[in-house]
Amino acid sequence: MALKSDFDTYRLTDEHAMIRDAVRSLAEDKIAPRAAEIDRTAQFPYDVLEALTRAGFHATHIPEEYGGVGADSLATAIVIEEVARVCASSSLIPAVNKLGTMPVILSGSEELKKQVLPEVASGEAMFSYALSEREAGSDAAAMRTRALFDGDHWVLNGTKCWISNAGVSSHYTVMAVTDPSKGSRGISAFVVHKDDPGFSVGHHERKLGIKGSPTCEIYLENCTIPVNRIVGEPGTGFKTALTTLDHTRLTIGAQALGIAQGAIDASIAYMKTRQQFGKPIGDFQGLQFMLADMVMQTEAARQLIYAAAAKAERAEPGLTWYSAAAKAFASDVAMRVTTDAVQIFGGAGYTEDFPVERMMRDAKITQIYEGTNQINRMVIARQLLK
Ligand code: COS
């Protein structure tokens, strides 16, 4: 047996490196100059959506057979990372499209896939994911939204909350109870369209960060949808929802990673130019140690996320804990790194004149959504102790 490693497995392929270069150039050219304004105005950036769509980066994960580019999990993570490096709000375009469509990709009928995925691939449609409710956040299985079969249609009633890109998306994967006697095995998943009768969107939540991505409640009031919009069999919706999160928690890790990298890049530039005591502040060892810690932690997060993406691609059984670990680790890192970046900038870092205060606010959500980091730690421990 040859004791030689295949070192190519430990670096990005040329294709992945090319994708990174292409997204970075688009992000710096078209998105970075808009990031502060998107944050200040809290408006969804339709121009960014258009630029991402034109370049094919708005929903890279859609398979080729449904009109997409069929990028693998790693390539999609890199796209989200690079967009988040300049604008976390904009990175939710590819991230939420993936979150919303994964239930259909994983469990939907061929008919449903053909019906909805090509529109997302072409950029005509965006897709959100509706699991949480006011009283069913971490305890997602406690949801109250009901779906009843009336003989011809599914009729949904209930309110879903914290829906990212609500109002902008045309499609929503909605989890609802179809059999209350069966607990989480009585939950089913459905695709709801914005024009379905009985569907409406609430007001925009006023948030700390990711302000360019609307977060709203959605209301289902006798919302009536065709029978073929159920995703998979009745009763499989909770499993589909959690398997989806196995694939997408790592993408939130990628978003956190991008935010951290953006804060590091801004810090390095500032440390080289800002003068105090007659020299650049980068000459001071106290700040050098801070920077070294920021980079060490961020690079460790990067390795964990890329490995999680490779596991997702290979459909490995340990993906549940690994993806949760990638998300929890990277988001904790992003929070520490962006807080340290504000510290390095001093008073200037606390103002809107520099991007690091926005990055610090944007980083916070990555510790909360797609499972709080406490839930993610529980997911990790449960799977390992099982
Ligand atoms: N993939 C597939 N199935 C899974 C799964 C996974 N990763 N994790 C659990 N399941 C299955 C279990 O096997 C169980 O199935 P059976 O009843 O057939 O045995 C079922 O799902 C219920 O699992 P469990 O009993 O563990 O569910 P709980 O209600 O205790 O809680 C947690 C599960 C807390 C992990 C889940 O509710 C969760 O992740 N909450 C956070 C939700 C979240 O991330 N919200 C953010 C939404 S996006 S912003």
From TrEMBL:
The keyword Cell membrane belongs to this UniProt entry's keyword annotation = no
Which SUPFAM superfamilies does the entry mention? Acyl-CoA dehydrogenase C-terminal domain-like, Acyl-CoA dehydrogenase NM domain-like
Q: What's the domain of life for this entry? A: Bacteria
Record-linked InterPro entries: Acyl-CoA_DH_CS, Acyl-CoA_Oxase/DH_mid-dom, Acyl-CoA_Oxase/DH_mid-dom_sf, AcylCo_DH-like_C, AcylCo_DH/oxidase_C, AcylCoA_DH/ox_N, AcylCoA_DH/ox_N_sf, AcylCoA_DH/oxidase_NM_dom_sf
UniProt xrefs under Pfam families: Acyl-CoA_dh_1, Acyl-CoA_dh_M, Acyl-CoA_dh_N
Gene3D superfamilies in alphabetical order:
Acyl-CoA dehydrogenase/oxidase, N-terminal domain (1.10.540.10), Butyryl-CoA Dehydrogenase, subunit A, domain 2 (2.40.110.10), Butyryl-CoA Dehydrogenase, subunit A, domain 3 (1.20.140.10)
- Enumerate the cofactors the protein uses: FAD
Q: Which UniProt keywords apply?
A: FAD, Flavoprotein, Oxidoreductase
The Acyl-CoA dehydrogenase/oxidase C-terminal domain covers which part of the protein?
Answer: 235-385
List residues of the Acyl-CoA oxidase/dehydrogenase middle domain: 129-223
- Please state every residue range assigned to the domain named Acyl-CoA dehydrogenase/oxidase N-terminal: 13-124
Family under the similarity heading: Belongs to the acyl-CoA dehydrogenase family.
Put simply, this protein is called Acyl-CoA dehydrogenase family protein
